[in-house]
Design a protein that fits this description.
Radius of gyration of chain A: 21 Å
CATH class of chain A: Mainly Alpha
CATH topology of chain A: Fumarate Reductase Cytochrome B subunit
Helix content of chain B: 40-55%
Largest sheet of chain B: 2 strands, antiparallel
Largest interface: A-B, 67 and 61 residues
Strand order of the largest sheet of chain B: 1-2
Distance between the termini of chain A: 56 Å
CATH architecture of chain A: Up-down Bundle
Structural class of chain B: mainly alpha
Helix content of chain A: over 70%
Number of helices of chain A: 12
Strand content of chain A: under 5%
Structural class of chain A: mainly alpha
Strand content of chain B: under 5%
Shape of chain A: globular
Number of strands of chain B: 2
Largest sheet of chain A: 3 strands, antiparallel
Oligomer: heterodimer
Number of strands of chain A: 3
Shape of chain B: elongated
Strand order of the largest sheet of chain A: 2-1-3
Chain lengths: 271, 417
């Protein structure tokens, strides 16, 4: 029987689910404004019940995403100061970039070109760290500019009005960056590339098989074997219902994301 | 042939009456007969007159001879002169001869209406008579018999082929047909009656330069504010690019200004001249929302006014520095001077006007371009490599195959166990 190891906790999986839900909701209710000249934008905004309803949902999803962000910060804070897990700040279990990531990146590029072997990745690869920090930065930027626009009456007491011009521009551009990145680069890197196609279910099941772990993250499995932490991560194979749940939910998310991406692309190319 | 026979017969029977002016009954004894006709230029022309309609008409007391003066005796000449209305209606006839219809008739245009074309002939009624073809409530249908006919419009190069249809859907047309308002503008209110001139003629009541005055006959208050505004002043200075009433409201299909579709369209209409302002407006939340077709948000007129638009340099302008906060407050009650520093027509490409926006825009564009180019290449290279390896693996024999790395395949295999 194949061994399985935990990669994501239930909390992390739920967090990703909430993140994905709120992100899709925000893109669907925000992009019609940015691409107002497109026929689909008019259709979607009217279909959702008008711009006021659309705005209501946009703000609701924004609150949900903010909640995710704050929960995450709380969790990082708890692990850092409560459980004194210094490892999350630096080292193989941290999402903070370290020299190995740059080396891995160069080696990976060489591998792309057939000039060397695939680098031995550890728990978090350089592109996963980029994903994390891109989303982190994106939430700070989009969130801040979004709240400035939402509460413009309050902010106008302390900020000059042209800040709203800048906030709207940054909000829209950063949103385009986020949507474009998630719906193409993140989807490809994690789900759609030939090794993973059509979907990496780990974010739904939380588990990876030993064979997959060894192929994808040899450094991690070697390190855990020598440190003796591997057995504590050992678990059963994900049950069928869980995998099917992941397939349906993940498939739906990817489909909606790609649809939104093509709508945006259509509007960008037509403009 | 039969007609001629009847004519001859009647002529003999009325011989004794020759010397006196003819009473209508005398004329009607021939012309009241159904089927009385003759041929002129190969066409059959009816000579029958509806005696009852004539008896009801405005001209009944005048008898036949007042108009058909050369038929004062029976028998009358076989070809009578055309009826000349100018003998009594001199002013109307002079006006008409100047008009587009009058000129067309001069040029032997058979479709152009003469007096009878609009007023009727033997059945002519007073304009105020509700049955008259030129009574305000009936006039559009009368004009529409030609100006609702696209073929006729094409033949005569009439610029608006469906004026009647457009008018009937307009606020004026509905006021007239649905509410029966005599004060509702009908065709004649704007174009005049007898002296209708083409819109390009500077003397026409519907020439651009005269449009405000023409609309002002009813909309006096609006025209007063319009004349004081930047558009009105430019128009009265003879600037042909300055909009007059019809440029925003259109001529025939004038709609209610509180309807959603009009409110959305008028923004685009402003943009026909103010293209740059529309473009920058569309980059703001206000402009995006109206572009999607929603109107409960600032449109051009909410800040600039509609008829009374004044330039920013005018201290009385709603967008002048002294009054801008007051204007913002119409929607944003908490607005203050700092709030009003928001630029509703900001241009990210204009460094002097919006320096911070300019640099933010540059930075964001650079960020987007570098991320997408970098990861785009990364993705293409990765996809290429992965597909190549997969093809090689498939080509190799199954024995020296590496263990499959994908998570999808392993649980699937396990299912079978």
């Amino acid at each position: 029987m194949t061994d399985y190891y935990f990669r994501f906790t239930l909390g992390q999986r739920l967090m990703h689910g909430l993140l994905a839900l709120s992100f899709l909701g925000l893109v669907a209710t925000g992009m019609p404004l940015r691409y107002h000249q497109a026929a689909w934008a008019v259709w979607l905004s009217h279909g959702l019940g008008g711009f006021r309803v659309m705005g209501f949902f946009h703000r609701t999803f924004a609150l949900l995403l903010t909640l995710c962000f704050l929960l995450h910060l709380g969790q990082v804070g708890y692990r850092l100061w409560g459980r004194r897990e210094k490892g999350i700040l630096w080292g193989p279990d941290s999402l903070v970039p370290r020299p190995k990531d740059f080396q891995d990146f160069v080696l990976h590029l060489k591998w792309f070109l057939g000039l060397g072997p695939k680098p031995a990745f550890d728990r978090f690869t350089y592109w996963e760290k980029f994903d994390y920090w891109a989303v982190f930065w994106g939430m700070v930027i989009i969130g801040t500019s979004g709240y400035v626009l939402w509460f413009h009456a309050v902010f106008s007491r302390i900020l000059p009005g042209w800040v709203f011009n800048v906030a709207l521009l940054i909000h829209g551009e950063e949103a385009l960056l986020a949507a474009g990145f998630i719906f193409t680069i993140h989807f490809f890197n994690t789900h759609l590339r030939p090794e993973k196609f059509p979907m990496d279910l780990v974010i739904f099941t939380g588990r990876v098989s030993e064979a997959e772990l060894r192929a994808e993250r040899p450094s991690q499995i070697d390190r855990l074997t020598s440190e003796g932490g591997l057995t504590s991560l050992k678990t059963d194979a994900p049950p069928l219902w869980m995998r099917n749940f992941g397939r349906i939910l993940g498939g739906l998310t990817v489909a909606i994301g790609l649809l939104l991406f093509f709508l945006i692309l259509l509007a960008v190319l037509r403009a | 042939m039969l007609g001629l026979l009847v004519l001859l017969l009647l002529w003999f029977s009325i011989q004794p009456l020759r010397a006196q002016p003819l009473a209508p009954e005398v004329c009607l004894s021939c012309h009241g007969v159904a089927g009385l006709d003759k041929a002129r230029d190969g066409k059959k022309i009816s000579l029958q007159v509806d005696g009852q309609a004539f008896a009801r008409s405005l001209h009944a007391p005048l008898g036949c001879g007042a108009c058909h003066s050369d038929a004062s005796a029976v028998p009358h000449p076989p070809e009578l002169k055309r009826v000349d209305c100018s003998a009594c209606h001199a002013q109307a006839a002079t006006d008409f001869s100047d008009s587009v219809h009058g000129k067309a008739r001069e040029n032997k245009d058979g479709d152009a209406p003469g007096c009878a074309g609009c007023h009727g002939s033997h059945d002519i009624l007073r304009v105020k008579d509700p049955s008259s073809k030129v009574y305000p409530l009936n006039l559009p249908r009368t004009c529409g018999s030609c100006h609702g006919d696209p073929d006729l419009a094409k033949r005569h190069r009439i610029p608006v082929a469906n004026a009647y249809q457009l008018y009937m859907d307009s606020i004026h047309g509905r006021a007239l047909t649905r509410s029966g308002l005599l004060v509702a503008a009908n065709c004649g209110s704007c174009h005049g009656a007898h002296r209708i001139l083409p819109a390009l003629d500077p003397n026409s009541s519907v020439h651009r330069s005269n449009v405000p005055a023409t609309c002002g006959q009813c909309h006096a208050g609006v025209v007063r504010t319009f004349s004081a505004g930047i558009h009105g002043k430019a128009a009265s200075d003879g600037n042909s690019k300055a909009p007059v009433c019809i440029n925003c409201h259109t001529a025939h299909e004038i709609r209610r200004v509180d309807m959603e579709d009009w409110k959305v369209e008028i923004v685009r209409e402003c943009g026909v001249c103010h293209a740059q302002s529309l473009r920058t407006y569309r980059d703001t939340f206000h402009g995006q929302v109206t572009s999607l077709g929603f109107t409960r948000i600032a449109r051009c007129s909410d800040c600039h006014g509609a008829h009374e638009i004044l330039p920013v340099s005018d201290p009385n302008s709603s967008v002048a520095p002294a009054r801008i906060v007051e204007t913002c407050r119409k929607c944003h009650p908490a607005a203050n001077a700092s709030f009003a520093k928001y630029d509703p027509h900001a241009e990210p490409a204009n460094r002097t006007r919006n320096p911070l926006l300019f640099y933010s825009s540059r930075f964001m564009s650079g960020l987007l371009a570098s991320v997408f180019v970098f990861f785009g290449l990364h993705t293409v290279l990765w996809a290429g490599r992965a597909l190549l390896l997969r093809r090689r693996k498939a080509a190799r024999s199954p024995e020296d195959r590496e263990p499959p790395p994908a998570g999808e395949s392993s649980p699937g295999e396990e299912e079978k166990q």
